[in-house]
Write a structure and sequence with these properties.
The protein is α/β, with parallel strands linked by helices. The chain folds into 2 domains: 26-156, Threonyl-tRNA Synthetase, Chain A, domain 2 (2-Layer Sandwich), CATH 3.30.980; 175-436, Rossmann fold, CATH 3.40.50.300. It is built from 12 helices and 16 strands. It has helices at 2-24, 26-52, 122-136, 207-218, 250-273, 299-302, 310-327, 347-355, 367-374, 379-386, 415-424, 432-436, and strands spanning 57-70, 83-96, 104-106, 109-115, 140-147, 150-156, 175-181, 186-190, 196-200, 224-229, 243-247, 291-296, 332-338, 358-361, 395-399, 405-410. The strands form 3 sheets. A 10-stranded mixed sheet has the order 8-7-16-15-14-9-13-12-10-11. Strands 3-4-6-5 form a 4-stranded antiparallel sheet, with helices on one face. Helix 4 (207-218) runs parallel beside helix 11 (415-424), helix 5 packs parallel to helix 7 (310-327) and helix 7 runs parallel beside helix 8. It is elongated. The termini are far apart. The structure holds adenosine-5'-triphosphate (ATP). Adenosine-5'-triphosphate is lined by residues 201, 203-209, 393-394, 409-410, 412.
């Protein structure tokens, strides 16, 4: 009886010790206890899991079988002696799960490499990812690092984007770190690599927060910021001290776009006369100031109240498209925000969207918006965009021009923080008239230079 109590006491002590370890030092508990236990479970259940997810293949293997053979001759008339059993070595079909590599721990889960069975493609694993996640009792399973014949599955125990910490800015020209990627790395928007960005999502999904993060990060840099805000200027007017120009009416938008196109033509001419393919190849002292154009609610630029506005809208669309097409070589970059940017807004919109190679899709209300933003990319990205919950604003799917995509979340940047950054760096705001030689009138809503 005493032994029983000692044993029970030891068990309770062990349980309390493990609980305390997990409570006060979760990282070492994960690597020391939880991860090895998970690995054992993954290995022990893998053949069942793979079979349930349709990932096994039938292979012919030599096996001893216990066969029932019909007995021939007179004994066959007696039902009790119809068969006789015989062990036999022969080739039979056996279900084989793909070979699992050694799981490697990560802070929030593990990565494991798999060898694809003959006839399988990474897409088979993307389709099965949700079922594998349920079988492994984890938050999500993603297919990452695809190499010929192999895929890596990345399992995460909880959503790494629940809390996103501020990352210090690099202050490299035109590089912004607005948040974190799901894999724990910094989310980097590098306008020199991906020149134009589409920032889409439903209302309250975090679009303005991302715009705030971009403004806050670019404010200390030697760049000109320009705003188009057809919501009466309510979004961008607070940042006016750091904006070289701000258009809040359709007429101002047209004038500002004309200025941008003229500026691009000047830059083109300058590059041509120096034999440079783009502004980055010009001598440093001649290199023009990069311009980042932020457009809030792009649909407003394309909406027509009546037919009389048709020509105006068409001219606006064409000018914007020219800015997008020429901007990449001549350091004029676009960040286009909107709830919808679909072909229903007019033919120019689809062409514009094709120029915006950087895509950010926040939570969407309707599948078409996700389709419009990410539809020409991996279908798994679309599924991930549709699954973004409303309670995590700022979570988005980010896709660059190489076709790869990530779940990401922007760091929370309040309007006040972006406003303070705009005020503190107002002295860096290039004057629009000096920059472009334009005659745009300075005043509320247009050319709001410091
Ligand atoms: N990354 C984030 N982390 C935490 N909270 C966020 C984040 N992004 C946005 N939010 C919060 O979500 C709410 C909506 O964000 P935001 O205004 O950016 O959405 P929106 O898509 O611009 O909406 P709308 O189209 O209505 O202007 C805000 O209250 C903001 O504080």
């Amino acid at each position: 009886m005493t032994d029983f109590y000692v044993f029970l006491g030891a068990l309770v002590g062990l349980a309390v010790g493990l609980w305390a370890w997990r409570r006060w030092h979760p990282d070492s508990f994960w690597y020391g206890v939880a991860f090895p236990a998970r690995v054992a479970l993954v290995y022990l259940t893998w053949s069942h899991v793979a079979s349930g997810c349709g990932l096994t293949r039938t292979r012919q293997r030599w096996r001893y079988t216990l066969d029932a053979l019909p007995v021939v001759g007179p004994a066959a008339r007696n039902a009790a002696t119809v068969v006789q059993y015989k062990r036999q070595l022969r080739r039979v079909g056996v279900e084989k799960a793909p070979r699992l590599g050694l799981p490697r721990p990560t802070r929030l889960g593990w990565r494991v490499r798999l060898r694809l069975s003959g006839g399988q493609a990474p897409a088979d694993y993307e389709k099965a990812a949700e079922r594998i996640a349920h079988a492994w009792r984890v938050h999500s399973v993603r297919v990452v690092d695809v190499t010929p014949g192999h895929v890596t599955l990345w399992a995460t125990m909880r959503d790494p984007l629940t809390v996103v910490e501020v990352t210090p800015e690099t202050e490299e020209l035109l590089k912004v770190r607005p948040g974190k990627l799901e894999n724990g790395q910094d989310w980097i928007i590098d306008f020199r690599v991906v020149p134009h960005w589409l920032n889409a999502g439903a209302t309250q999904s975090g679009k303005s927060n991302l715009a705030n993060a971009i403004i806050k990060a670019l404010a200390p840099q030697p760049v000109a910021l320009v705003g188009f805000d057809l919501k009466g200027g309510v979004e961008f007017t607070p940042y006016a001290p750091r904006l070289s120009a701000l258009a809040t009416t359709r007429t101002q938008c047209r004038a500002l776009l004309d200025d941008l196109v003229a500026e691009l033509e000047d830059r083109m001419e300058q590059c041509r006369s120096h034999g440079a393919r783009n502004v980055w190849r010009l001598p440093e002292e001649l290199r023009p100031v990069p311009i980042v154009v932020l457009i809030d609610e792009v649909a407003e630029l394309f909406l027509m109240a009546d037919k009389s506005e048709k020509d105006e809208v068409a001219r606006t669309g064409t000018a914007l498209l020219r800015v997008a097409q020429l901007g990449r070589a001549f350091a004029v970059h676009l960040v286009v925000c909107g709830q919808r940017i679909g072909s229903d807004l007019g033919p120019g919109v689809t062409a514009l969207r094709a120029q915006l190679s950087g895509r950010v899709c926040h939570r969407v209300n309707d599948p078409e918006t996700a389709n419009m933003t990410l539809g020409d990319m991996d279908p798994a990205a679309l599924d991930a965009a549709r699954a973004i919950p409303a309670e995590t604003p700022g979570v988005c799917i980010v896709a660059g021009q190489d076709g790869s995509w990530h779940r990401a979340r922007s760091v929370y940047v309040s309007e006040e923080a972006a406003e303070t950054a705009a005020r503190d760096h107002a002295h860096l705001t290039p004057d629009w008239n000096d920059l472009t030689g334009s005659s745009l009138t300075t005043g509320p809503g247009c050319s709001a230079a410091a």
